[in-house]
Amino acid sequence: MELRARELAKDFSRGRSRRTFTAVRPVDLELEAGTLTVITGRSGSGKSTLLSMLAGMLTPTAGSVMVGEENLYALGEAERSRLRNRRIGLVPQGHTALRSLTVLENVLLPAVLYGRAEPPQQRAEELLEAVGLAELREARPSELSGGELRRMAVARALLLQPRIVLADEPTAGLDGENTVAALELLREAANAGAAVLVVTHESEADRFADRAFTMGGGSLSPQADQPS
Ligand SMILES: Nc1ncnc2c1ncn2[C@@H]1O[C@H](COP(=O)(O)OP(=O)(O)OP(=O)(O)O)[C@@H](O)[C@H]1O
């Protein structure tokens, strides 16, 4: 088991009255090596909140996240971020490119942060090829479309062949062909042994999944027609 969440929940206090709003109700979820899990759900159902907690980016109100033998939120900030860099490839929500770097340098960023002596240049180029961005390798993020930036983020998350891949709307803004290419790449990462989670409102993702869940009103439930 690469990642295990137990009774993971998140409340926010919202508005001027600071009233408590429950974004994620206690969730149990296990991500296994070699498996692609998809969570679909409508906007506002709590998908990103759940993924951020699994990624060690958002402290839960209750519950735990185990990454291997480590309890993520029992670690200090620095240790948690080290574990995240080592184990988790994250495709965060929105655009997170560094504007001063080229596309290729952005994809290589995890290697720089991880302190690799030799940046895996060839792998970065192969990933850019796989997401159809080979010709834009020297471009700046400001020259890319929203969909191209999403594809770059997928390539970056997979650079160091992480054991866990957490992708928040990896296909947002992509056309049909690029959606399939991005999902195929995530599928390949699972086939190569990673535990992959994709959260999306793209139903197309289901056909790449080993397990599919639906999120609604902060609760996670297995999809009725589980892919076999
Ligand atoms: N920092 C915050 N403070 C208060 N409320 C928040 C905060 N972050 C998220 N929420 C609320 O929690 C709920 C779930 O948000 P979340 O972003 O997890 O949904 P989502 O399913 O990922 O939606 P989308 O598909 O639109 O990204 C929303 O109603 C949102 O308003």
Mean of the pLDDT scores?
A: 93
Ligand roster = adenosine-5'-triphosphate
Might you state the CATH topology name of the domain at 3-98 and 161-222? Rossmann fold
* CATH C-level class of the domain at 3-98 and 161-222: Alpha Beta
Strand content bin: 25-35%
Domain ABC transporter: 3-228
Keywords: ATP-binding, Nucleotide-binding, Transport
GO molecular function: ATP binding; ATP hydrolysis activity; transmembrane transporter activity
Protein name: Abc transporter
Features:
6 helices; 30% helix; 228 residues; six-stranded mixed beta sheet; single chain; alpha/beta; globular; four-stranded antiparallel beta sheet; Rossmann fold; binds adenosine-5'-triphosphate
Overall description:
By secondary structure, this protein is of the alpha/beta class. It has a domain of 158 residues: Rossmann fold, CATH 3.40.50.300. The chain has 6 helices and 10 strands. The strands form 2 sheets. Strands 6-7-8-3-9-10 form a 6-stranded mixed beta sheet, with helices on both faces. The longest helix has 16 residues. The protein is globular and about 50 Å long. The chain starts with a strand and ends in a 6-residue tail after the last strand. The protein binds adenosine-5'-triphosphate. Adenosine-5'-triphosphate binds next to β1, β2 and α1. The site of adenosine-5'-triphosphate has 13 residues, from β1, β2 and α1.
Brief write-up:
With 228 residues, this protein is of the alpha/beta class.
Can you lay out the helices and strands and say which pair or pack?
Layout (H helix, E strand, L loop, with lengths): L2 E12 L4 E13 L3 E7 L5 H8 L7 E6 L2 E2 L5 H11 E4 L11 H11 L7 H10 L15 H13 L5 E5 L7 H16 L3 E6 L10 E6 L2 E4 L6
Parallel strand pairs: 3-8, 3-9, 6-7, 7-8
Antiparallel strand pairs: 1-2, 1-4, 4-5, 9-10
Helix pairs in contact: 3-5, 4-5, 5-6
The structure holds adenosine-5'-triphosphate.
